[in-house]
Amino acid sequence: MGTSMNALYSAAITFTGQNMGAKKYDRIDTIAKISTGLIVFAWITLGGLTMLLGRPLLNIYTDNPEVVELGMVRINILMVAYFTAGMMNVYPGITRGMGYSIPPMLSTLIGACLLRIVWLWTVFAAWPTPAVLFLCYPVTWLISGTGQVGIFLYTRKKVRRRDGEAIGEGLAKR
């Protein structure tokens, strides 16, 4: 799953950078829409297959039924919300392709790193079960992914406004 989301990130940052250079901003919106569609498609197909074939896949690595059962708990918790991990990965790529790398970095540091530490110190400390530990990922993916989409929308507006003003200034000088 992670590899497919990383591939979408790489494509998004590359295509966005190319269209920024060409000042084809409408195409960046298309990149965001197509990327979101591909995230959902990968999530449904790969996540669904992982959930469906989880036990046989886990049995490749272990024959311990307790380990397989715990692995299934993890798979079921993570796969249900894995599209949020895709959003957390792909939208920073689009924003970076637009030339803004600091805001997505800060959102990831806060949403994926800091909040996970806070989760361990608070929620997991109060309910120390594997399921609560595994829930840390989808919760932080959702928070960080929401932040990343918001940063993209803000940056998109900022870039269009900035370049619209620059184009207007160029016309005024003629």
UniProtKB/TrEMBL annotation:
<keyword id="KW-0812">Transmembrane</keyword>
<dbReference type="GO" id="GO:0042910">
    <property type="term" value="F:xenobiotic transmembrane transporter activity"/>
</dbReference>
<dbReference type="InterPro" id="IPR002528">
    <property type="entry name" value="MATE_fam"/>
</dbReference>
<dbReference type="GO" id="GO:0005886">
    <property type="term" value="C:plasma membrane"/>
</dbReference>
<dbReference type="Pfam" id="PF01554">
    <property type="entry name" value="MatE"/>
</dbReference>
<keyword id="KW-0472">Membrane</keyword>
<keyword id="KW-1003">Cell membrane</keyword>
<feature type="transmembrane region" description="Helical">
    <location>
        <begin position="73"/>
        <end position="94"/>
    </location>
</feature>
<keyword id="KW-0813">Transport</keyword>
<keyword id="KW-1133">Transmembrane helix</keyword>
<dbReference type="InterPro" id="IPR052031">
    <property type="entry name" value="Membrane_Transporter-Flippase"/>
</dbReference>
<dbReference type="GO" id="GO:0015297">
    <property type="term" value="F:antiporter activity"/>
</dbReference>
<feature type="transmembrane region" description="Helical">
    <location>
        <begin position="106"/>
        <end position="126"/>
    </location>
</feature>
<feature type="transmembrane region" description="Helical">
    <location>
        <begin position="30"/>
        <end position="53"/>
    </location>
</feature>
<feature type="transmembrane region" description="Helical">
    <location>
        <begin position="132"/>
        <end position="154"/>
    </location>
</feature>
<protein>
    <recommendedName>
        <fullName>Multidrug export protein MepA</fullName>
    </recommendedName>
</protein>
